[in-house]
């Protein structure tokens, strides 16, 4: 554990709050996920932080995956999570969608906000019904931290939760009223 923290300190030397937050556990809730998929996700997430997993008893989806990161959604997250780990997670999600075909599948990624000084939780919700744009939506998640940060700051809202869904018409992640 100490080696991991020292490595992260070298990546982001000025942000010790992120290091403290990373000692918190990632919550992983799932339904209808194969043991292979679960193991691959768990192994990748556990390189970043401890993982607390919970199997859900029921879901309206054939498969549901809910991952709650105890850190803000920002560039520091992607730097500390690592490029290879982010690529692995995206690959697993894409494979899960491919294996399920047209059946209902949902991924929810939650973050503790946009920075350590805000307490607005960010939720990104993605379903398989968007077809081939599913992969494109996943790719965009890693590149829009700055624009989401700006959007949330400009809204100056007291909302506790900001939920984003992917819109196939505009090909963008949009702020949604649905959770």
Question: What do these coordinates show?
Answer:
The termini are far apart. Strands 2-1-3-4-5-6-7 form a seven-stranded mixed beta sheet, with helices on one face. Helices cover 41% and strands 24% of the residues. The protein is an alpha/beta fold and 179 residues long. It has one domain (2-176). Mean pLDDT is 83; it is low at 1-22. Strand 6 and strand 7 form a beta hairpin. The chain has helices spanning 2-11, 16-22, 35-46, 75-81, 83-100, 133-141, 145-155; strands spanning 26-31, 51-55, 63-68, 105-111, 121-127, 161-167, 172-176.
DSSP strand content: 15-25%
Number of H- or I-type helical stretches: 7
The N- and C-terminal alpha carbons lie at a distance of 35 Å
- SSE arrangement, N to C: HHEHEEHHEEHHEE
Tally of domains: 1
Key features?
179 residues; alpha/beta; 24% strand
Explain the layout of strands and helices.
Elements: H1 2-11, H2 16-22, E1 26-31, H3 35-46, E2 51-55, E3 63-68, H4 75-81, H5 83-100, E4 105-111, E5 121-127, H6 133-141, H7 145-155, E6 161-167, E7 172-176
Parallel strand pairs: 1-2, 3-4, 5-6
Antiparallel strand pairs: 1-3, 4-5, 6-7
